[in-house]
Amino acid sequence: MITLLLILTPLVAGLIAFVLKQGNSAKTFALLASIATLAIALVAVFTTGEIGYDAAWLNNLGSRITLKADGMAKMLSLLTAVSFPLIFTAVYNNEYKNAASFYGLMLLSQAGLMGVFLASDALLFYFFWELALIPVYFLCSIWGGEKRIAVTFKFFVYTFIGSLLMLIGLLFMYFNTADQSFSLQSFYAVKLTAQQETIMFWLFFIAFAIKMPIFPFHTWQPDAYEQSPTATTMVMSGIMVKMGVFAVIRWILPMFPNAAAQSANLVIILSIIGMIYASLIAIRQDDIKRMIAYSSIAHIGLMSAAMFTNNQTAMDGVMIQMFSHGVNVIGLWIIADLIEKQLGTRNMSQLGGLAQKAPVMAILLVIMALANVALPLTNAFIGEFLMFNGLFQYNMVMAAIAGISIILAAVYTLNMVQRVIYGELNVITEKATDIPLNVKLALVIITLLVLVFGVFPQPLLNLTGDSVSALFVKK
Amino acid sequence: MSKIAFLVPLFPLLGFLINGLGRQRLSKSAVGIIGSGMIFLSFLTSCFLFGQVYGAAANSGGAPINSVVTLFNFIQTEAFTIPFAFQIDQLSVLFLLIITGIGFLIHLYSTAYMKEEAPHHFARYFAYLNLFVFSMLLLVMGSNYVIMFIGWEGVGLCSYLLIGYWFKNGDYNYAAKKAFIMNRIGDLGFLLAVFWLIFKLGTVNYTDVFAGISQLSAFDITAITTLLFVGAMGKSAQIPLYTWLPDAMAGPTPVSALIHAATMVTAGIYMIARSNILYTMAPATQTLVAVIGLATAIFAATIALKQNDIKKVLAYSTVSQLGYMFLGLGVGAYTGAVFHVMTHAFFKALLFLGAGSVIHAMHHEQDIRKMGNLKKYMPITHITFLLACLAIAGIPPFSGFFSKDEILVAAYSSNPLFYYIGVGGALMTAFYMFRLYTLTFLGNFRGTHEQEHHLHESPSAMTIPLIVLAVLSVVGGFIGIPAVFAENQHWLQNFLAPIFAESTKLAEEHHLTHSQEYLMMGVVTLLIVFVIAFAVKSYKNYQNTNDTEESGLGKLLLNKWYVDELYNTIVVNPLNALGGILKNVVEKSGIDGAVNGVGKLVAYGSRQLRLIQSGQVASYLLIMILSMVVFFIVWFNDSTIIRFLDKIF
Known about the structure:
heterodimer, A: mainly alpha, two-stranded antiparallel sheet, 2 strands, B: mainly alpha, 4 domains, 73% helix
């Protein structure tokens, strides 16, 4: 029941938001609804053991509304539930034209995300996958930046191809289930020939790789992040990329273990190339948003490499990093948005000296930057440490090469810090003021999450421990 | 062991939080009292711990003392557990005293040195300083390599924050960033070593690692120690990762004292001393450590010969002295290296604080060519600085003599060539230090009249630390009296013996005869005295002519062998260029081009099908269904499709 509420609350709230009068009511309503969802998610997290829901749906197709929340699903529901109130708080002062629709779409997307993480039925999973994505097309194409139409189109083409591949895969699997069912358990039980398994693996993998994204399927992302309204960008990079990571862990690895093991080397090498590639590009970015986008690609690359190492510690790292990366990257976007809204530019070359005008913002930016370079005692360190550790056991040389990204991360992140907040003021930054209260609140909460889970990561590790061990017992 | 160990890092952490969060409200005096007071409390706790360890060691009769205090489990997975725990034994407690003791003096000094800063910047400064000490304490107190790594990266962060403390200046920010990134290169090596340990032993706790050493192959040990040493190269500024340290003087001068003496750069020495058994079992790595250390000692000393910035000379002298410590570690003289860390902490802190006093009096002038005759105006600074110079030059019975002698004697036993080169470096040390001393304090004043008019001795908050450090620099060596003077009077060696016991067992005994040792000491001391006299004579009547263009070797040294330029050419610029190519060429026309091609193809196809006007989502659905139909026809037979359609409709 709790799991159903996690989806229904944002879904119903989203539909209600559409019909609300314009003005402040929509954003206040959305914020309250997202806080309600957070409360439900906390109940879910503190309920021990697997929780779920099951009801009839398309019976003759063999598809049911089956929701299940194991540790990983709980953790990602929590991430989704924590992120939305933070996002709504941070953008509370932004004026969106047609705000009711904006917030309605955001909430619908949240419902879709919850569904993706909780669904234990393939058709339902696909349905929610699209429910999460389609609002984003609208959000980007209506409220986005100058190049939004072209960018939405590119984003659309990519995800369209991905969804198509996934749908083909799902249907193939469905036809091969023993009981003609879409249930996850039936999918796990499908017996495939080696060749079929390999083909299926790549169908699903490319679908999810686009979403994460993994090099070379990533080029939609910097554009989409840059052009979307920042609130949507936060959803995309904070939570939505985790759909891809999640889907690999929930669907690919248990369904196609042999193909995954065979292709592991290739995937890991691609991921590592992507890490270095994206880091080198991040160094050369002038636009804060694009820099964060490439930095994010590098971080996701490590997760995707770690997933395929077949190492339990690495998987623990992936789990905790999904949460940490989600929270931290939202923090970075909040600051990028604040700077853009206030000064009208995101180009670092036009910024500088903000530490004098906006000291609180500067401090919070430095903390976010430190989390971005995974400094010990920030939450990101735990995940990176565990993932690199697993990668090292998989292949020392690969771990060493991937490790270069740790150094490069320091280069581009500190570059950003230096060019934005240090140095002398200029005509643009002269007029900056410090951080508004609502943004400060959101960032302080993120800072606390960064530090608390950086020092005491064990609760999160324990939460997802069951999902990880289930993955390794199965084999 | 003592339950109160956690207080040692807790006090500076509290100081950081109070001063950091209260920076807009607290007065400068409150900030100074909190900032220094917290370190003093830490120092008192450390003294207490030292007493406990000393007592326990006396009772245990040379056996290792059980000394781990676990706070909680930091990371626990199926494969391994990393406790958040402290190890309070002879080695860590010695470092605690150095860090908190000298740290406190530097804090005290800072209250006067930084008093012209605005209150909230003053508070920011002290908050950073406290955080720095906190990180360093974690580094030495941790009972495993991961806790050490937390402190290891933590001091990197704090040096970044403090070097770039005056954040309006672009050069300073650049220096700060350089420090952090160079450290990170080393940190990667450290991390890989930690992963290696986990891989092979499933633990990172010192006690378990050292107990399980027999399960490691010789290759493992060599690899682990080499990777750890890469970390030490970054943190302790050794070739090739040393260039950040001389630039680090961009920070306020007391920060340099903190970085160069009490914290940060000694981390590498501590780490190797802590892992001594691993290094003893990896002779190849030991040779590498010794060679790198010696090369750094000489290389940095040559650069120091020609620098004109008072802090730059001192910075290169630190790099050089650290090289001696690594030489000591490399030849197995672990006690000697730790001894030199300690005496060096005394005289280098003194030198930097003395330099700060000079810079303070000279109104931020750092060029020694524009100083001179300061002994007349600053008697305390002058005397204490002179004592520090004598100590670093290695004149008996000042502290530097004993520790450097111990390292050099051990180097001779290992390889006489190390000894001769090391002595060469020591002579250069004597020369550049007394060049610095003479140009600053002797001769004629060469600054402006304005500056001369304002010359003054520093306030007592600055001179008291100078005096305390001067006393320590003079007498600090007596805790390590070599056997040649008196048998078994080497207090430090006896105290640290349990830490290095396993290594001592494995090491081959080399003993020089007493007459040999006396001869070596005597000759070296004579040479040093001669060099000092030569330096003073050469620079006593120095006139700042400004127009003497350096050429040849002098120019090479003045420009620090062009190493920064070399690194820019072979690493920084190519990486930047590569990033540019990836960004502008590969990303735009390569990958993106291909995708846009697909996109255009879809768009074109859609146009041909006259579907575009129905909107994107509609065409998306339609194409999806069409493709599915195609796919069905290819992949499935008719009956499956009919069955499926039957179910839907």
